[in-house]
């Protein structure tokens, strides 16, 4: 993937790296139990406080912390440049899609942080992994997560990393379209935990599909190859609920799925990638057992 060739402008990156972590220590996640929670939560959640048991109170104000060398350091920082290029290109792609539909797309921001930070959805640390917060329209990312993908989950490579970002942007698209609010209402009205989880699965699979739509629109400029696509597929397989549960507990409980199985995640990503059409990403009109 030639990410340096991605067109677009305005990545909206807020660089908080070097801030020394969360005031007061933030969320403490440790031990075997913490690792299992992190493995399940680290990929593609909207609000990590739901998984980690955080409250709904407004977080204290967070002071933005720039890297010590400021913009000059960012210019030579490959992680920063990669994230900025991917984000600005998602803005271009989704801005165009919304414009064709007669709508206006509001660009999200992406917060880069080290160890921990505050978000509109509460405190977060690197164990939570990338997430989108609908309360402030920001994606949160500690780039050390990319090396965790390689070491712990067997998924890596530039296009796989871009898929992670594009998935979170997919949640922003859902927020822009009002889908996230509709799902939240349905979850509150659900009669069982399994039913509530099923709405979460539909939401996550649609975000996977939206990530594929972005990949389709970017494949020429970024020179995306079949090998690149396989990187994203391996990542999608690695973070399926069935695979994570099998690793964590030795068995699988489908009613507890919140993100979808490995096969479902691959299928919906590839649906978006092959079609390039967000209208093909309707995970809500299908019977649940047909996803």
The percent range for strand residues is 5-15%
Strand order of the largest sheet: 1-2-6-5
Count of helical regions: 11
Largest sheet: 4 strands, mixed
Unreliable segments of 5+ consecutive residues: 20-72
Separation, N- and C-terminal Cα atoms: 29 Å
Q: Radius of gyration, Cα only, in angstroms?
A: 18 Å
Overall geometric form: globular
Given helix and strand content, the structural type is alpha/beta
Q: Level of helix content?
A: 40-55%
Domains (count):
1
Number of strands: 6
Average the pLDDT over all residues and give the rounded result.
80
Describe the overall structure.
The chain is an alpha/beta fold and 291 residues long. It has one domain (3-290). Helices cover 51% and strands 8% of the residues. The protein is built from eleven helices and six strands. A four-stranded mixed beta sheet has the order 1-2-6-5, covered by helices on one side. A hairpin with a 2-residue loop joins strand 3 and strand 4 (122-125). The chain crosses the membrane at residues 21-46. It comes from Deinococcus rufus. Pfam families: Zn_peptidase. Keywords: Membrane, Transmembrane, Transmembrane helix.
């Amino acid at each position: 993937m030639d990410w340096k060739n991605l067109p677009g402008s305005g990545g909206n990156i807020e660089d908080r790296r070097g801030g020394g972590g969360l005031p007061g220590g933030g969320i403490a996640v440790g031990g075997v139990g913490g690792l299992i929670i992190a493995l399940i939560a680290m990929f593609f959640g909207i609000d990590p406080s739901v998984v980690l048991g955080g409250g709904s109170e407004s977080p204290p104000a967070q002071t933005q912390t720039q890297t010590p060398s400021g913009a000059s350091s960012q210019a030579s920082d490959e992680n920063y440049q990669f994230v900025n290029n991917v984000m600005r290109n998602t803005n271009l792609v989704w801005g165009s899609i919304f414009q064709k539909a007669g709508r206006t797309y509001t660009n999200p921001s992406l917060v880069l942080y080290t160890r921990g930070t505050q978000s509109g959805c509460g405190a977060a640390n690197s164990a939570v992994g990338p997430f989108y917060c609908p309360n402030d329209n920001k994606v949160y990312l500690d780039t050390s997560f990319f090396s965790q993908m390689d070491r712990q989950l067997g998924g890596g490579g530039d296009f796989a990393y871009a898929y992670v970002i594009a998935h979170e942007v997919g949640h922003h698209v859902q927020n822009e379209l009002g889908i996230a609010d509709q799902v939240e209402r349905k979850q509150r009205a659900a009669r069982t935990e399994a039913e509530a989880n099923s709405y979460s699965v539909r939401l996550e699979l649609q975000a996977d599909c939206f990530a594929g739509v972005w990949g389709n629109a970017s494949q020429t400029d970024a020179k995306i190859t079949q090998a690149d696509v396989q990187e994203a597929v391996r990542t999608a397989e690695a973070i399926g609920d069935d695979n994570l549960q099998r690793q964590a507990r030795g068995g699988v409980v489908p009613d507890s799925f919140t993100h979808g199985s490995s096969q479902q995640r691959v299928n919906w990503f590839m649906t978006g990638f092959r079609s390039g059409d967000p209208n093909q990403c309707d995970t809500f009109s299908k019977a649940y057992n047909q996803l």
